[in-house]
Every structure is written in C-alpha cells, then in structure tokens.
C-alpha cells in the first residue's frame, strides 16, 4: 500500500501544469507591469534616501568646515605664523598621508567648495546619514505585525508617503532649524523604510511563481542602481543649477507623488483582485501561484526562538550585514571622497559616482536571468543558486577589498581606488 502511495506521489509530481505558461516579458503581462511599477517605486525610495550623499556635498560650506577643523587641530592651532609651514611639514607626514588631505603652500587644506552655506562638520554629516538606519532598525521588528495582517499594497503606499513628507520638509528644516531636525526627519524616513522591503516581498509572493522570483527580484531592485546611475548625475546637475540643492529634494518628492498616484489606481494585492488581465495569464497564475492571505485569522505560531537560532538564518544575516555595510559606506561616502580627495567638480562627482551603479545594474540582471534559466531546466536548485551567488560574490569581494586597504594618496593610487570600488560594486550583482 505504501509503495502505491509513493508511486502516485511521483506521478503527481511529474504531472505537467494544465494552464499554458504566460510569459513575463510581454507588453500585456500584468506581472511585467507590476514589476516595472515596483522598480519605479524602489527607485524613488532609494533616491530619496541616498541622494543626500551627493546633496550633502552641495549643502555644506566646505571652506568653513575646513577652517573650523583646522582651528581644532592642535598641530596647526598651536603653531605661530612663521613656523606654520615648517611645523605642518613635520607633523602632517603621517596625518596627511593617512587622511589624504591636500595642503597648499601655506599649510592650509585645499578645499573644493560647491557653494553650500551650512557649517556642518564631518561628524555631524555622519550623524545625519545614520538617521534612516536608526529609524528602520526601530520598526523592522514591529512591522511584521502589520504586513501579516494588512494589505501590502497599502502598506507600501503609506511607507512611500512617509518618505515623501520627510524629503519635502528637509530643505526647510536644514536652513531654518538646524542639523538635529534634519536627523529627526531622516529617522522618520527610516520608519517608512522598515516597511518597504517586506511589503514588496509580500506583493512578489502573491503575484509571481517561484521560477520567476530571481528575475523579478533583480528587476525591481534595479531601481536601486537606477537611483545611483541616473539620480547622482541628476542631483549634481540640479545642485550646479540656479535652483540649488533644495531642488533635488523637491524634484524627487514630486516624482514619488506621481508614483503614488499610479500605484493607487493600477496595483492590486494579488491576481484575483486585478480587474484587467488576460485570461491566459489569469489561468496560469491561478495554478502557478499559491494564494496566501495577508490577514492573520488566528494567533501566530511562528517559532521565533528556533528561527533566530537557526544556522541558516544566522548565516544569511551575516551575509546581508556585510554586504549592506560595504555598499552603504560606498554609496554615502564616495561623493565625499571624490570631492575632498580627488577634488572633482560637482558634475564630475555625480558622473563618477554613478559608474558603479551602471556596472552593477547590467551584471545583476544577466546573472539572475542565467540562474533562473538553470533552475527552470532543473540543472540547479534554489538553494544551490543562493549558495553560488553568495560564495562567488564573497570570494571576489575579498580579493578586491584586500588590495584596496593598501591604497595611499599618491596620484595613481587615488585613481585606482575608484576603480577598485567599481569592481567591488560589480561583484554585488551576485548578492541581489
């Protein structure tokens, strides 16, 4: 009897789907429309969060910051007029080489100023950058109580609205109320960030078969790279224009408002609620995607203790931590490096900081489509594809980070450092 049941089970597993496959990449595919809309939304949220890196170089009065920091430097502050150059040459042999500071003949730091007016120190800039991460950290746990019980479509809309409000008020707060109010606005933006990824993942689970999820993840997260590839040069151009840096905030807030309108009228939580879809695609999704209600009808039975002590969970947590730390540091501090160390102008800064995102965008999409093709042909499993991506990306990442640690401030080294960054970010295509 048991052997008959096993045989029936094997026959059931080999049975082909009755519904004809509806292609993802088709002008009438609602799944394709949805993933484009998700990519657009992710572009908006990433732009609102990350453009501060290059906008900050335009907001801050670099000349004033350099003078203040020089006054706080004991070597320069305690040196009298005629001995200034001699003392600087003696004491800055270490600090200038390690900190990559360019100094003029009078001993003062060479500064490229983009015309900003805010005298925020580098420590204060770092403090403001951290705001969104603190906000997201506070809500990432409680957010699970919402997206298991509420519409992921509406949660994503609410999260983007929080982004928009925080972005739109930032210029007013920065000019009139100071750095700490900007930090508070960034924390509130982080509250919205904590709901973005879970809501998008819930939408993907409701709409896409397993075989397509790798490609879909690469496509919607491509909004991240578009935000850097298109957003950085655009932000630099607005900063250099007569409109100034506040125009960057108002532009992306307006564009995100357009996304909210499109999302409100064209999206749905799952295919069953979609009013406009071909019969072929509807039948295919009804068979290929298992419907899961986002509303909890009973008490949660998630084994949190077992989950948080699982080796698989801890390994994935470590991988994401390392990946996000390195990518975040690059995104936030590459514009400052290009300005303060390589002394690039604002337009060149936006262009060079966009290059890693272009490389990452091209590579991650081709890599994910290749893996999905191999999975559809049963050549590799889902687990193996994840292990392969994480392993290859980590190994090559290590090979590029190690030589970067030996970079000094010589002419060729400063040119090599962005090149290593470019290759480094290219390898992060494996992770996404």
UniProtKB/TrEMBL annotation:
<dbReference type="InterPro" id="IPR011701">
    <property type="entry name" value="MFS"/>
</dbReference>
<keyword id="KW-0812">Transmembrane</keyword>
<keyword id="KW-1133">Transmembrane helix</keyword>
<dbReference type="GO" id="GO:0006820">
    <property type="term" value="P:monoatomic anion transport"/>
</dbReference>
<feature type="domain" description="Major facilitator superfamily (MFS) profile">
    <location>
        <begin position="34"/>
        <end position="432"/>
    </location>
</feature>
<dbReference type="GO" id="GO:0016020">
    <property type="term" value="C:membrane"/>
</dbReference>
<feature type="transmembrane region" description="Helical">
    <location>
        <begin position="341"/>
        <end position="363"/>
    </location>
</feature>
<feature type="transmembrane region" description="Helical">
    <location>
        <begin position="183"/>
        <end position="204"/>
    </location>
</feature>
<feature type="transmembrane region" description="Helical">
    <location>
        <begin position="247"/>
        <end position="266"/>
    </location>
</feature>
<dbReference type="InterPro" id="IPR020846">
    <property type="entry name" value="MFS_dom"/>
</dbReference>
<feature type="transmembrane region" description="Helical">
    <location>
        <begin position="127"/>
        <end position="147"/>
    </location>
</feature>
<keyword id="KW-0472">Membrane</keyword>
<feature type="transmembrane region" description="Helical">
    <location>
        <begin position="154"/>
        <end position="177"/>
    </location>
</feature>
<feature type="transmembrane region" description="Helical">
    <location>
        <begin position="216"/>
        <end position="235"/>
    </location>
</feature>
<dbReference type="InterPro" id="IPR050382">
    <property type="entry name" value="MFS_Na/Anion_cotransporter"/>
</dbReference>
<dbReference type="InterPro" id="IPR036259">
    <property type="entry name" value="MFS_trans_sf"/>
</dbReference>
<dbReference type="Pfam" id="PF07690">
    <property type="entry name" value="MFS_1"/>
</dbReference>
<feature type="transmembrane region" description="Helical">
    <location>
        <begin position="313"/>
        <end position="335"/>
    </location>
</feature>
<protein>
    <recommendedName>
        <fullName>Major facilitator superfamily (MFS) profile domain-containing protein</fullName>
    </recommendedName>
</protein>
<dbReference type="GO" id="GO:0022857">
    <property type="term" value="F:transmembrane transporter activity"/>
</dbReference>
């Amino acid at each position: 009897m048991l052997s008959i049941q096993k045989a029936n089970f094997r026959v059931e597993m080999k049975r082909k789907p009755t519904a004809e496959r509806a292609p993802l990449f088709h002008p009438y595919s609602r799944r394709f429309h949805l993933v484009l809309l998700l990519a657009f939304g992710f572009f908006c949220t990433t732009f609102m969060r990350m453009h501060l890196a290059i906008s900050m170089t335009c907001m801050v009065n670099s000349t004033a910051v350099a003078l203040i920091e020089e006054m706080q430097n004991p070597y320069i502050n305690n040196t009298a007029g005629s001995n200034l150059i001699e003392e600087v040459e003696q004491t800055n042999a270490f600090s200038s080489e390690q900190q990559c500071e360019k100094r003029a003949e009078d001993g003062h730091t060479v500064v490229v100023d983009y015309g900003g007016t805010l005298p925020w120190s580098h420590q204060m800039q770092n403090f403001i950058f951290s705001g969104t991460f603190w906000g997201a950290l506070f809500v990432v746990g409680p957010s699970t109580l919402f997206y298991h019980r509420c519409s992921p479509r509406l949660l994503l809309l609410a999260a983007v609205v929080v982004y928009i409000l925080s972005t739109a008020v930032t210029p007013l707060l920065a000019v009139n109320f100071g750095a700490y109010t900007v930090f508070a606005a960034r924390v509130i933006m982080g509250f919205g960030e904590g709901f973005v990824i879970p809501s998008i993942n819930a939408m993907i689970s409701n709409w896409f078969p397993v075989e397509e999820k790798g490609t879909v993840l690469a496509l919607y997260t491509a909004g991240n790279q578009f935000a850097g590839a298109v957003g950085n040069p655009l932000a630099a151009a607005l900063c250099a224009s007569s409109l100034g840096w506040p125009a960057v905030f108002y532009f992306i807030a307006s564009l995100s408002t357009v996304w909210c309108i499109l999302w409100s009228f064209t999206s749905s939580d799952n295919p069953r609620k979609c009013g406009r879809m071909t019969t072929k695609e509807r039948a295919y999704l009804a068979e290929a995607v298992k419907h899961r209600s986002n509303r909890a009808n009973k008490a949660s039975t998630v084994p949190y203790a077992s989950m948080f002590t699982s080796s698989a969970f801890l390994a994935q947590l470590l991988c994401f931590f390392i990946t996000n730390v390195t990518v975040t540091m690059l995104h936030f501090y590459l514009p400052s490096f290009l300005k303060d160390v390589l002394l690039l102008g604002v337009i060149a800064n936006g262009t060079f900081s966009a290059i890693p995102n272009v490389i990452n965008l091209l590579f991650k999409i081709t890599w994910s489509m290749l893996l999905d093709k191999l999975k559809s042909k049963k050549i590799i499993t889902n687990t193996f594809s994840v292990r392969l991506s994480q392993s290859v990306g980590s190994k090559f990442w290590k090979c590029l980070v190690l030589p970067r640690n030996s970079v000094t401030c010589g002419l060729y080294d400063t040119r090599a450092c962005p090149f290593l960054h470019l290759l480094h970010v290219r390898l992060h295509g494996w992770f996404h």
